[in-house]
């Protein structure tokens, strides 16, 4: 699957447009639905891991976006310790629910 942000690499200013943001959010929701559908069909641990990794990557991308905005506007960088704790908690909870043995 092609990275959505690669499409806009030659025109990064378009990422600030609300319509583009809505489109990207819609794409992410469709990706999530696709993973859910695949999981329902197969119900195996590999798809659970894939879904979990996609969520972690999505969270990391959101953090990077926030960091870029803070640097762009000269705000002090946020403390990422809470985000790291949330990601860790999410991974452990998915591990417990799906018995992944991570």
Secondary structure elements and pairings:
Elements: H1 18-42, H2 45-73, H3 81-98
Helix pairs in contact: 1-2, 2-3
Please give a structural write-up:
- With 102 residues, this protein is mainly alpha-helical.
- The chain has one domain (9-98).
- It has helices at residues 18-42, 45-73, 81-98.
- α1 packs antiparallel against α2.
Put the structure in a nutshell:
71% of the residues lie in helices and 0% in strands. The chain is mainly α.
Mean pLDDT: 79
**Percentage of residues in strands:** under 5%
Question: Which structural class fits the helix and strand makeup?
Answer: mainly alpha
Biggest sheet record: none
- SSE topology string: HHH
Principal-axis shape: flat
Amount of helix: over 70%
Query: How many β strands by DSSP?
Result: 0
The DSSP helix count reads 3
Which residues sit in consecutive blocks of at least 5 with pLDDT less than 50?
A: none
User: How far from one another are the termini?
Assistant: 26 Å
What's the alpha carbon Rg, rounded to whole Å?
16 Å
| Tally of distinct domains | 1
What key phrases describe this protein's structure?
single chain, about 100 residues, mainly alpha, about 70% helix
